[in-house]
Specification:
The complex is a heterodimer of chains A (456) and B (90).
Chain A: H1 6-18, E1 23-30, H2 40-54, H3 58-69, E2 73-80, H4 83-86, H5 94-111, E3 116-122, H6 129-143, E4 148-156, E5 160-162, H7 163-179, E6 191-195, E7 216-222, H8 225-234, H9 240-269, E8 273-277, H10 290-296, H11 307-325, H12 343-350, H13 356-362, E9 369-376, H14 381-398, E10 402-409, E11 417-419, E12 426-428, H15 438-441, E13 446-447
Parallel strand pairs in A: 1-2, 2-3, 3-4, 4-6, 7-8, 9-10
Antiparallel strand pairs in A: 1-7, 4-5, 5-13, 6-10, 11-12
Chain B: E1 3-11, H1 16-26, E2 30-39, E3 42-50, H2 58-72, E4 74-80, H3 82-88
Antiparallel strand pairs in B: 1-3, 1-4, 2-3
Helix pairs in contact in B: 1-2
The chains are: A alpha/beta (456), B alpha+beta (90).
Chain lengths: 456, 90
């Protein structure tokens, strides 16, 4: 192999030092099926010991690899089998499920990870008694833990949308907001509603270890919006062919770092490498923004006409470049468009360039969905259910993952700001259409599975 | 052999190579290749070294190089070669 050149070394290090290139997360998926028992205390003991045994070296190995390759590995996380299944035999009350949530939180703190995902239920078609208890326990569980993340899957392209679950989640989002209102309703930042969820997603708040997965697996999420932004700015004024080639090549390079880190972590921890998630994930840091890439492509502000097309290009080229760079691609793999976690996205929302409706359109062409959007605290639960139903329908019909993570900030309205802090950032409260949809979402039952032919 | 890439970046002054090379010699690290570029007063240098016989941990190496960096007023980074191979070679 030809020896590496000075310019190549310089390019890589520029990306790391000046363009925020990092590996966003190494997430260890842990199967908790073998912890199941009918006694909740014994179940909690089993869960705690399995997580702390398998993930005990996750953080130190992540840091070690980061040091040796000179690339930051920002987050180390754990995802587990959906807890509604794990607790189905032992949990007789909401409080029993909260006990598990606290156990997960304690395990996360012991191993030193900063989030643990999988406080989840898969209710795309039907809801078991345990599913219902877990869903009802979410507000309490998220208010009494620091690191636990919850996701509820309410629809899929195969089976349709469980509208009973959608309606329930409207209430649960609202209750979670109420119970955490002292911190700008931050509980909702740890709660996602999915259609077509990914079993191997390494990103929070939606990560869980799918039931089709093995005993333990390492999934890696790469990042690098800053690198793509710099590359795009260098081809300002060039045609679409040049633009697309540039994004593709950049995505390839960024993804290779994730592949290296994933394989190396897998070797050192003795846990199989699962997938690399190609998602471009922004942070509130300056220059680490998806909105900046879209604006670099020629939009005055994200949200302007052309935004959906620009995002479609970005998403598709990132996949084209990334797929060849990794042996296994999975998870969500697209561009994330959270509002509060992306400073330029929040700025565009603030000035009115970006609306909730435009964001909804954007979710048709990228992963994942309506993400980290602060809405007025007096938004009705039925309206939140309507927002969820719309987003789930986009996922169901287009056979893609979609999600909703909205935060009705209690006590605040349009013109105010929500401040979540850290990676979660802050955002203006965005207006929501106030016309009612109660009669629609209160019907109950399921939306049937869609037809998979006659595509138009 | 464990190839490590060491990069030195900063203001060009007398004795940079001497100081860094002395550190390598004292620690059993063999230099395989040196390339550098200067523009005006700024230096960007890359050294390919073999850390296979180095007795300390990687953390010791980066701490040691940081100390040398402080002395010569440059930033000195050490990274395993694989990160560059992965990114730039198919």
């Amino acid at each position: 192999m030809a020896i590496i050149t000075l310019n190549e070394v310089r390019e890589t290090n520029n990306m790391i030092q000046h363009e925020n290139l990092d590996v966003r997360t190494i997430t260890m998926g842990i199967n908790l099926m073998d912890c199941m028992t009918d006694d909740v205390d014994r179940l909690c003991d089993n869960i705690y010991s399995k997580i702390t045994r398998l993930a005990k070296d996750l953080v130190s190995v992540g840091n070690e690899i980061g040091l040796e390759f000179g690339v930051p590995i920002v987050n180390k996380r754990v995802s587990v089998t959906p807890i509604a299944i794990v607790g189905s035999s032992a949990c007789k009350t909401k409080e029993d499920f909260v006990k598990i949530a606290k156990t997960l939180d304690r395990a996360a703190k012991t191993v030193g990870v900063n989030f643990i995902g999988g406080y989840s239920a898969l209710v795309m078609k039907g809801i078991t008694a345990a599913d219902r208890l877990l869903i009802e326990s979410i507000p309490l569980a998220l208010s009494q833990t620091d690191y636990v993340c919850s996701s509820i899957s309410v629809g899929s392209s195969k089976v349709g949308i469980n509208m009973d679950a959608v309606r329930m989640m409207g209430d649960i989002v609202k209750k979670t907001a109420e119970i955490t209102k002292d911190q700008d309703s931050i509980g909702c930042a740890k709660l996602v509603v999915f259609c077509n969820p990914a079993d191997d997603n390494p990103f929070m708040a939606g990560a869980f270890h799918g039931v089709i997965e093995g005993d333990a697996v390492l999934n890696v999420g790469v990042s690098g919006p800053g690198v793509v932004k710099t590359a795009v700015e260098k081809v300002r004024g060039e045609n679409f062919e040049v633009l697309c080639e540039t994004i593709k090549k950049t995505a390839f390079k960024v993804t290779r770092i994730g592949q290296l880190v994933g394989k190396e972590a897998s070797r050192r921890l003795g846990i199989p490498f699962g997938i690399l998630d190609l998602s471009l994930a922004p942070t509130p840091a300056i220059g680490d923004s998806i909105a900046d890439i879209l604006q670099g492509m020629g939009l005055e502000r994200v949200g302007a006409p052309g935004t959906t097309a620009a995002l479609a290009i970005l998403n598709d080229q990132v996949k084209k470049g990334g797929v060849m760079a990794s042996s296994y691609v999975g998870g969500l793999s697209g561009a994330f468009i959270p509002v509060s976690e992306d400073a330029s996205m929040a700025e565009a929302a603030e000035m009115g360039a970006l609306t909730l409706e435009k964001l909804e359109a954007m979710t048709c062409v990228c992963s994942v969905g309506l993400d980290m959007i602060a809405i007025p605290g007096d938004t009705k639960a039925s309206t939140i259910a309507g927002i969820i139903a719309d987003e789930m329908a986009i996922g169901m019909i287009n056979q893609k993952t979609t999600a909703v993570r909205v935060i009705p900030v209690i006590g605040k309205g349009v013109g105010d700001h929500a401040e979540f802090g850290g990676l979660l950032g802050d955002a203006p409260i965005m207006p929501v259409n106030t016309y009612a949809c109660d009669e629609f979402v209160d019907r109950g039952g399921r939306i049937p599975a869609p037809i998979h032919s006659f595509k138009n | 052999m464990q190839k490590t890439i060491v990069t030195i970046e900063g203001k060009d002054t007398i004795g940079i190579i001497a100081k860094v090379c002395t550190y390598f010699a004292d620690n059993g690290i063999n230099i395989l290749e040196i390339t550098q570029t200067t523009s005006e007063d700024n230096l960007y240098m890359m050294m390919v070294v073999d850390t296979g016989k180095y007795a300390g941990t990687f953390r010791d190496l980066t701490d040691g190089l940081n100390a040398v960096g402080k002395e010569i007023g440059c930033s000195v980074r050490a990274q395993h070669e694989e990160i560059f191979d992965m990114m730039h070679r198919i």
